């Protein structure tokens, strides 16, 4: 679709988008609050990362459309996806996400224009002069295609090293163009779409440390010299080894005090149950305490498609059921979900035990693979669980751990060996080794039942 056609299409569908927004507002006024509507009540957005190839899955699309007010393409706007050959742009998958978001009245964050990773091979082969031209052409080509349609762009992503040095990361841009490439990218982006918010985005900058200090100094310098930067993104990937920092809010605030907005851009927190819920609450409360924290984005809709799926880091489990972390976020945003809905057996407080089962392939080799099934209790404690695994006809299980199997044909029913008792929202699991016998197909995980 050409830029001209997209602009004509955007004008033609403006009424549809407005109608969708009005419909969503009316729905949220009648029903229990959602993440997006609750955040809007606080003057913020609540978004998620979206993969175009999942939009055809009914539960994925329904959860996305119901709960979120902003989307970020996971990979579809990165350089390798949009300009695989120099000067030849490909927007099909990204257009699908943008068009879907517009049809639902959602904002779009653009991710990302200049990044050291997911570059097509031709970029790294360029000399300095050609690379500068290619970088600016890429920014103009991508932003020009979506001019007026993207709320915020991650102009430069992850340009600083981890560790204690605060140094710039080695990349084709840094190594050949020097420190000035970031400023040049922002100036080019401002000219390409003056209405879009321009952000710098990075990870492990959530607390005050050498890396965040280096980013802070860059932003302070940019603001003092009139370099066009509007916002800073904090990815906020947390787990037990990298918990929510105690100075998280203070760090967000010091950046906001420089005169930029702050956004939580890729939030996920590994864990389960009340501990995970408490950590999500800390993040939301920190954003709400900083007036220039304009919104939050979780990095994915459902645990089963997360890049950290084994850590169950998101707000919806693999069956799209709301986790305790969801309820905590909704409550922190001032929402009023209905935990006592008798039609939802997974809701906390209704007294009905429930569980979900999600599958991950944890290792793979030519003749076999290892699989892991994660069992997560619903809103009530459980004393036992049962899950089924249906294997392709050719495959066979050679080992299983943390569960007790029985067989009926190629259907394996697994019950706990020692790990049947779970607190509300807590997780356990079992693993198995499979001989492929010529078939690489994934097993089918059945419904989890609990007592």
- Using the CA coordinates, give the radius of gyration: 23 Å
Which structural class best describes the helix and strand composition?
alpha/beta
How are strands sequenced across the largest beta sheet?
1-2-3-4-5-6-8-9
Mean pLDDT figure? 89
Strand content: 15-25%
Number of continuous helical runs: 14
Q: Helix proportion of residues, in percent?
A: 25-40%
Number of strands: 18
Biggest sheet overview? 8 strands, parallel, barrel
Gross morphology: globular
Low-confidence stretches: 1-5, 11-32, 338-349
* Ends apart, CA distance between termini: 53 Å
Pick out its properties.
single chain, alpha/beta, 8-stranded parallel beta barrel, 18 strands, 5-stranded antiparallel β-sheet, 451 residues
């Amino acid at each position: 679709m050409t830029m001209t056609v997209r602009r004509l299409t955007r004008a033609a569908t403006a009424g549809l988008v407005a109608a969708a927004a009005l419909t969503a507002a009316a729905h949220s006024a009648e029903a229990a609050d959602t993440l997006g509507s609750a955040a809007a009540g606080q003057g913020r957005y609540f978004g998620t990362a979206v993969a175009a190839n999942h939009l055809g899955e009914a539960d994925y699309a329904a959860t996305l459309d119901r709960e979120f007010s902003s989307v970020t393409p996971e990979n579809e706007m990165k350089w390798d996806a949009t300009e695989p050959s120099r000067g030849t742009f490909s927007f099909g998958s990204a257009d699908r996400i943008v068009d879907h978001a517009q049809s639902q009245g959602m904002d779009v964050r653009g991710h990302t224009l200049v990044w050291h990773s997911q570059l097509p091979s031709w970029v790294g082969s360029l000399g300095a002069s050609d690379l500068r031209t290619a970088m600016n052409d890429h920014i103009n080509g991508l932003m020009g295609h979506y001019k007026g349609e993207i709320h915020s762009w991650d102009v430069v992503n992850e340009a600083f090293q981890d560790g204690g040095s605060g140094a710039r990361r080695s990349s084709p841009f840094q190594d050949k163009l020097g420190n000035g490439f970031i400023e040049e990218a922002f100036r080019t982006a401002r000219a390409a779409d003056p209405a879009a918010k321009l952000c710098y985005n990075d990870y492990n900058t959530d607390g005050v440390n050498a890396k965040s200090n280096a980013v802070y100094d860059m932003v302070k310098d940019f603001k003092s010299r009139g370099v066009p930067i509007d916002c800073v993104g904090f990815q906020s990937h947390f787990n037990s080894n990298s918990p929510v920092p105690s100075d998280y809010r203070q760090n967000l605030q010091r950046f906001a005090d420089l005169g930029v907005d702050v956004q939580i851009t890729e939030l996920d927190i590994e864990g389960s149950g009340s501990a995970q819920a408490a950590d999500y609450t800390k993040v939301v409360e920190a954003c709400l305490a900083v007036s220039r924290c304009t919104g939050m984005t979780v990095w994915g809709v459902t645990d089963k498609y997360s890049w950290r799926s084994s850590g169950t880091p998101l707000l919806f489990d693999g069956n799209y059921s709301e986790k305790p972390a969801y309820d905590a976020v909704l409550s922190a945003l001032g929402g009023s979900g209905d935990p006592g809905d008798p039609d939802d057996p997974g809701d906390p407080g209704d007294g009905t035990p429930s569980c979900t089962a999600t599958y991950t392939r944890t290792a793979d080799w030519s003749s076999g693979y290892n699989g892991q099934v994660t069992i997560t209790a619903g809103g009530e404690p459980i004393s036992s669980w049962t899950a089924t695994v249906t294997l392709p006809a050719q495959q066979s299980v050679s080992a299983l751990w943390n569960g007790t199997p029985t067989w009926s044909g190629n259907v394996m029913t697994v019950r706990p060996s020692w790990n049947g008792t779970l607190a509300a929202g807590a997780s356990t699991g079992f693993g198995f080794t499979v001989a492929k016998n010529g078939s690489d197909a994934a097993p089918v995980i059945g419904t989890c039942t609990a007592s």
